[in-house]
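User: Just a sanity check before I run the rest of the batch. Below are the structure tokens for the first item. I only need the designed sequence back.
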């Protein structure tokens, strides 16, 4: 499951798009969806690509609405952001979040970065060099999907790998009002905390043997001095401070054979901040291999860990008794 031929996928996408009428024209209009854009509820099991012009560039994303989605109620949505040099198709195949979506009745979205990259901070991408407004892009994509489908806006989650993980954390920092929780892989927050950030649950998953984004610090990207301050532990402590967590050290440590989870569980807004350390994983934390990165070969269900974490949380405030 989750592994499909590209040709077969795109034939389904084109059929779905023909029904949806959601491909943007070339007039540069990136406003919210109109009544004509709405996808009829009878077309469950949708798997399509939608595009629009955002700040003079055509930008696209893949939406998957499994047949397991309950069309009679609002359902969660998870956005899965690819790493630098990957495509949205690569990320979908690698993370297998389509399987998570199908098993849990969730809408999944894979956006495509410019030149296969995201502007997530100082590090290493064409989008970053051009200072593209990728946070604004993701917010527009969220609005489009919400307009077309029954999304529970209290349960919009973020995940992603490497450059996509850094963008997930940038989105959390800049738009904590929009997202319920994030759990991403193999990178850190590359910006300063913002004053208007409101705590949301954060999990970062990182291989101890990561040779691209080092576990100890991000010194591979020197001469940027800030990189010395960015590592898995530093990132955990930074988010704990941002979330107003109690104590200087994690109050929860859950070890297992192939990984451990250190967490701050007493944080503002009922949030948690967690670091998952994979003992034998390199830059690719997923089960599947990609390029020269072998993955964890099935020893750790990283996407399951990520989903189990974020799915606990909702922005909806429980009424007082």
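Assistant: Here's the designed sequence for the first item:
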């Amino acid at each position: 499951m989750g592994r499909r031929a590209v040709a077969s996928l795109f034939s389904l996408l084109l059929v779905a798009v023909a029904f949806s009428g959601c491909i943007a024209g070339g007039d540069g209009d990136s406003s919210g969806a109109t009544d004509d854009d709405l996808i009829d509820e009878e077309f469950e099991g949708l798997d399509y690509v939608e595009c629009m012009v955002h700040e003079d560039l055509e930008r696209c994303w893949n939406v998957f609405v499994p047949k397991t989605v309950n069309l009679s109620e609002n359902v969660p949505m998870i956005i899965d952001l690819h790493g630098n040099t990957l495509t949205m198709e690569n990320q979908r195949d690698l993370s297998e979040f389509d399987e998570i979506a199908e098993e849990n009745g969730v809408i999944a979205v894979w956006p495509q970065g410019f030149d296969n990259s995201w502007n997530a901070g100082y590090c290493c991408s064409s989008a970053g060099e051009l200072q593209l407004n990728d946070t604004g892009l993701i917010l527009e994509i969220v609005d489009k999907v919400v307009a077309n489908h029954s999304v529970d806006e209290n349960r919009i989650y973020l995940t992603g790998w490497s450059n996509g993980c850094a963008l997930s954390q940038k989105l959390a920092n800049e738009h904590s009002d929009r997202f319920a929780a994030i759990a991403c892989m193999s990178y850190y927050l590359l910006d300063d905390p913002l004053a208007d950030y409101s705590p949301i649950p954060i999990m970062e998953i990182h291989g101890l043997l990561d040779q691209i984004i080092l576990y100890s610090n991000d010194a591979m990207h020197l001469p940027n001095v800030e990189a010395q301050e960015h590592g898995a532990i530093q990132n955990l402590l930074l988010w704990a401070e941002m979330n107003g967590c109690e104590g200087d050290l994690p109050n929860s440590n859950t070890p297992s054979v192939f990984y451990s989870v250190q967490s701050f569980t007493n944080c503002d807004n009922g949030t948690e901040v967690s670091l998952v350390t994979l003992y034998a994983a390199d830059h690719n934390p997923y089960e599947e291999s990609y390029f020269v990165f072998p993955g964890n070969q099935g020893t750790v269900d990283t996407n399951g860990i990520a989903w189990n974490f974020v799915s606990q949380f909702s922005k909806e405030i429980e009424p007082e008794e």
